[in-house]
Design a protein that fits this description.
The structure is a single chain. With 737 residues, this protein is α+β, with helices and mostly antiparallel strands. 24% of the residues lie in helices and 27% in strands. It contains 15 helices and 32 strands. Helix 8 crosses helix 10. It is elongated and about 105 Å long. The protein starts with a helix and ends with a helix.
Amino acid sequence: MRLVLLLLLSTFLSSNLVAQDKSWQGKFEPIDNMIAPPNSFRSASGAPGKAYWQQRADYKIKAQLDEKNNILTGEETITYYNNSPDDLSYLWIQLDQNVNRKENEGFSYTVGNVRNGIDTRSMQILTRAIDFPAGYTIKSIKDASGKNLKSFVNNTMMKVILDAPLKTGESISFSIAWSYHITDRSLFRLSREGFEYFPEDDNTVYLIAHWFPRMAAYTDTEGWQNQQFQKLGEFALEFGDYDVEITVPEDHIVAATGALQNPNEVLTKEQMSRMNKARTSFDKPVLIVTPKEAEANEKKKAKRTKTWKLKAKNTRDFAFASSRKFIWDAQAVKLPTNTVMAMSFFPKEGLPVWSEESTKAVVNALEVYSESTFDYPYPVAISVNTSNIGMEFPMISFNGGRPRDGKMSEGRKASMIGTIIHEVGHNWFPMIVSSDERKWMWMDEGLNTFLHQRTVEERYPNFNHTTPKSIVPYMSGDKSIMRPIMTTSDSESLFRIGSNFYQKPTVGLQMLRNSIVGKELFDQAFKEYANRWKYKHPNPGDLFRTLEDATAVDLDWFFRGWFFTTDNVDMELTNVKWYKIDDNKTNAKIEDRDVDLKINAEGQNRRDFSGGAEVISMVATPDNSYGGFLSRVDEPEIRKQLEGKNIYEVAIKNVGGLVMPVTIEWVYTDGTKEIDRLPATIWRLNEHEVKKTFVKSKEVKEVNLDPNFEFADTDTKNNSFPKVDQESDFDKFKNKN
């Protein structure tokens, strides 16, 4: 009966607490119901299951650039392999260029408003007052026998109807002939591709990306990923081999995904000789096309054409850049398992900064990312200069940042270098660890930014880099318009994407590495995830499970709070009590020196340790408290160990909602300091407020929470005892930035 009464009382108290505040419970609940359950395709450990499968698409493409009319024309043959257990009666093809059609779903409204004094370019972006042709002209879709296949175009997706279902284990080859008008990049914000015109010398740089009809991904968790392309959410793509021929004006230089197959046909003997020299130059870049040669090319305007032939194996996309303006340099990078050629292509407008910094940044990214995950597997890593923005593709990236009159501020240079590192880093996430960018933007941007910031910290220590401090302004913002990280890219505001999908996941991983799991164990787990899922399609649950599987650390509480909610970290040091034991003063009555750090209505309730300790006594433990135990604790020894010691009881309140480990800094009266660390599990029994008792030999002058700003605490004014009026170091940082 006693047990039944205790259970009833416990249930009543628990129910009453939950009824008062429903948010009180649940922060340590497993996230199993929030992610897809494990199955034969994806195991409970976070690794691909024994039955894991994915589709494949090989491409043979011939494309020709019409510089006079800015038109790209192409023919491609796709061989699609159905490795799924499903029979497919139709296929979905991505037609990404259709996003630029005027009648397509709008995007401009997210980045501007009509206002008095609006500049004409912004008005053009909003209204498209001057129209221009855009989108694909699909000339034909034929099967391997030349028979026309039926198709339907729905905005940026095309459905191809098969004459007979493509059964599991079978493949199909079909061809598409197409063309489209290359768009002027200056007519769009967030323009990831198109052409840039240079009126001074009447030349053009072409950045050609998501340019050919591509297979949509078909996966075990999504089926067809045929979500419309709206520019913000990027791509979900299948791996395959590429055999590509690109015909351009004879005086153009092409930078592209893959290995060049016909260098003797497109490069001069001198350029070939320089390239051979670059293959053994591990300390600095070698110019393949010099500034003088590039300027001479600008004046030619060749009438004839030449064809660049390239092949790429086991990659998920293909992009290229073409211009007669390009200066080109290259440097070899020796990795443990292979040698990679780091390259940069840039017009004279990029000098001198690009010749000094671009390829160096590519090298730094290749080395740090390879060490952190797996060796870069492809033959080249290319950085191409563009007017603005940064965009990644396998083996090649388009990166903004140019000097003005040959000069560049240190801040702009740091931004340019960071962009190059970031976009080269995308070769790992998502070009190889191929997450679904359209659905989970944070999985490629956040993981990549985490290693990008690590590269900057290690190779450019004088540059600013993301730390937990960086996310505080965002996490202190308006919760009514905030969304969790676990939000699809097209559902988030453009102005919050950088914080929510780049910085916040980065800071979360930094906290796991530096303060929760530990660097060595976390690095092993992160590398395990990268190697498990290279050339495959991971989902968020696969990352979460792998990090737990490879560390033996329960992180569900962290994933739940940081990724699935908009709660923030705000720990308040609400109470500090200082005691000393004196058995000679039984029932001593002294002034209550409890310190309540919360500011009362007048804002004046502040105290310190100046009144000394509260003297308390200990009494003998009554026998009935031992229950059935016959042994007894050594009470004299306990008294001896506490004799003359200072006992501090610290009370901490969780104001922001996110549970986190607690770091306590003790500043002693002799000027020395000490750190105590409490795990996040201290909040398990009470997610609102916890108390912890510490025994110290020295007297304490000051107590601080999170002294090194490890956990992105959004309000440091309530982190210290005694409370002071002075602006804290962190508040100075926030006000300054």
